[in-house]
């Protein structure tokens, strides 16, 4: 009887996890879908003044959301779009009413003494995700963006933003070829995130290194993992 009870409990937990997974959904909006939701009137009301580069929608047990990633598109240079500023917006839709839940604002570093520090800033949609990482039925949005320095990615900046139950945790990183040029700042709130979320972000960071988009020494990533374990203990 006891064995049967354990099996029933396990089956219930598996069904519950499956139901939570099935209750979440996300996808990238087409241009037509983007224009349908982010109408000129809606953009004007919510001060979305830059062109929307990419838009998403996602749903979980807390509701339905729409996200717009917008870039200033200041000029075209060698077929590349140069952005001085970026903004992102997250709206929750309930009974036909859209309420802004969070907003991201950032810009490339200004020139100093006639020297260009950064040439452009943009969203790295290759690493942006809207997934339920810990199986609690809530999606954890991850938004990543960065800049080009004088040597491209090698001395640019990047920022990883993780939204967990409405709270933002950030990892800010300055790339650099030399050890002394690199600097990484991790919000303390990041180490309070579920282990699965932290592990996934670390995997993203490793992927950035593999793709030559960031320079995170392996010993630093190991240090992050060790600190997460110490805080959990």
TrEMBL record:
This is EF-hand domain-containing protein. The keyword Signal applies. Residues 1-19 form the signal peptide. It comes from Pedobacter albus. Keywords: Signal. InterPro entries: M949_RS01915-like_dom.
